């Protein structure tokens, strides 16, 4: 006697579910379902067996308990290659479930709404769904499990072609399920850890992170490397919330550079433009208008900006767009683009335009770096530069203009790879020395780039001066003011040299290493 083929369907995301169920019925499957899913299938005119009919037990506790029953889980978990388990099924009148199609309550979407209360969030923690998914994935040798609507057509294709689903497909689908349930639990754990009344440590003994794939990338940092872009689960923030409105797909390096540009530009309240090349700013400009800010950023380093990434913290309008189109840029990111600006930039078909979320508090609060065998995690440094907390250590005090320049300079320094030295004037960088093994090396690069503009400019450093050689080079170039953390055993040497040359220097006691 031929055994009835049975599929269990219980989904929150009902995309394509009616079409799938209809096809399965045509292939001889009996559909077993629950609650809202059963109602949707009934309304589509499809024959459905309620889970309560199979278990002879009603849904109880307001739907909290419906599929948590031996007659369901035995039907999913039975090893059909074992005679003793087949006999047990027969003894209890259990029809094996061959296909499990389940996705879970929308917990992530629920907590993304600001008005969601804790009780509502808790009720969206799925219990029966993960249990069925994990059971089916565990028993993938005998059960096909589907959690992703994008896989429906693939499984239907195999069933129509050969009457069954291949072992390779079942293993792949099982892996997808375990990734899905792990991510679901990670989001729940993060939600509970973030509650102020949870009393949880900032860094728990076990940290579960959940990411969802946004897209495959053409390649990684180099063509021989494969890559993909994953976004943190939960409410989209930062680059994950960006909307691309023009241009070819973003690359790995585009995204990495844009991240550097966007994190820096959000530090400024005044209209600001940041040009980035190889994850370091090459030109930063702040001014009264976005057009003027872009001009300053471009003129800061008109060579390096070629093929770079540009970020602005204001609407891009026609005047700025006309200037931007004169140079080859990979990406322009801004809160928005006027209709005229988009029209001006439209003929540069490969140029990517990204509309960005502007709230600084929408950027991840943690910084994560992968290392061999693990990762490093730290809080992001979001505190604005406030030099009033610093200490003037020289005989000469900074002028009001120098104060403003030093704040601007040190804001840029925060986002330059260490060792970092930045030379700047009023709202414009003149020279940037990044990622050098010695501080004097970074200083010489920055001063050389600044050239004659260094005379009357200011210098910012991400860490203390181990020797007074940076002060010596700065004085020769005409720098008038320096800001650095201080803390070197030879600080006094640097202070004495500043006094000798009439420079002013501020110690902030705050380091800005960036690796």
Radius of gyration: 30 Å
- Straight-line distance between termini: 68 Å
Count, helices: 18
- Secondary structure category: alpha/beta
In the sheet with the most strands, the strands line up as: 8-13-12-11-9-10
Specify the CATH architecture of the largest domain: 3-Layer(aba) Sandwich
Detailed description of the structure:
This protein has 515 residues and is α/β, with parallel strands linked by helices. The chain has 3 domains: 5-194, Methylglyoxal synthase-like domain (Rossmann fold, 3-Layer(aba) Sandwich); 237-360, 3-Layer(aba) Sandwich (Cytidine Deaminase, domain 2), CATH 3.40.140; 387-507, AICAR transformylase, duplication domain (Cytidine Deaminase, domain 2), CATH 3.40.140.20. The protein contains 18 helices and 21 strands. It starts with a strand and ends in an 8-residue tail after the last strand.
